[in-house]
Design goal:
Layout (H helix, E strand, L loop, with lengths): L2 E5 L8 H4 L2 H13 E6 L3 H7 L5 H13 L2 E4 L12 H9 L5 E3 L17 E3 L8 H9 L10 H14 L3 E5 L3 H10 L5 H10 L5 E8 L9 H10 L5 H6 L1 E8 L1 H7 L4 E4 L2 E5 L16 E5 L5 H10 L9
Parallel strand pairs: 1-2, 1-4, 2-3, 4-5, 6-7, 7-8
Antiparallel strand pairs: 6-9, 9-10, 10-11
Length: 320
Amino acid sequence: MITTFYFDEEMFQDNIFRDHPTTTDHILKTWSKYGCLAYCEKDKGYILKSLQNVPPKFSQRWSAAIQHLKKTPITLENSKLSDFESYNLVDKALTQQGVMIGILPNDFLELFQVDNTGKLEIISPLGIHDSKHFANSEKYSSLDIGVDDNIDDIWNRSLKNLSLYSKSIIIIDRYLIQNIMDDYEQGKETSIEKFSKYLSKNNKPYNINILSACDINGQRTNSDKIKAYLNDILRKKNYIVTSKITFTVGLCKNKFFSQHAHDRMIVMDKHAIQTGNGLDIFRNQPLGFCQFNIKNKELTKFDEINSRLQKNREPGLSSL
């Protein structure tokens, strides 16, 4: 559900930022919810300098967004969109870098014969309202899971880009460890293995922090079996070793989940993924109807929940 977009310093030449100040609000809100800015490192200083074209109260917000919101560096030989001679050339250059939207001042759109039927959208700042890619990001951030869905489609439409442009992952799921051990003992691929396989395709390291319950239905989990699975099976999987995926597992009594963390969630950087079935959507079993939404974690109680669970990890089970 993350859309990668690109602009250079010329975007801020558009008069829309002076004449219609709500444009800044909409772009920054869309970026915060659904976007990842692709930028050329060599041009970052020019972009910040170009903010002088924007009224001061908005330039400060843009500067903060460029510093704090999701972004990824890319390399372009020609980094100014207006210097490309045709839509086909800019389409090829940006889509090779995973960019889905290029934003130009409105007066520059006439440089391209653009119908936006290809992979890349070329739009003006005001055109972000009508972007099909951002519309899909919004749709797939809140589309519930149905019985006819498959996890490959869910990953590709909602989670692939979010994981690609994230660094840390925290999973809060009271049933996760019990379900992992049940599946492992039955010879099935576990949900955390399937989830890690998808992550490994991004070819980048991750640290996955898991918080789960140790006494579901009053039955205490066997810590020796969990450690054996984590150390002798999971952490030795080739795709996990090669991708440098690491795990930290902490267990709490189920009562703390009942009191403070009833809902399951997966948090990737600043986005919280809330699913009715937690990481079970990655289990080796048919999918069922399930709530699914992705939102900024500030709109959830994640920080409070995570803090409470971290403080109440069981002795001897706090870092497996």
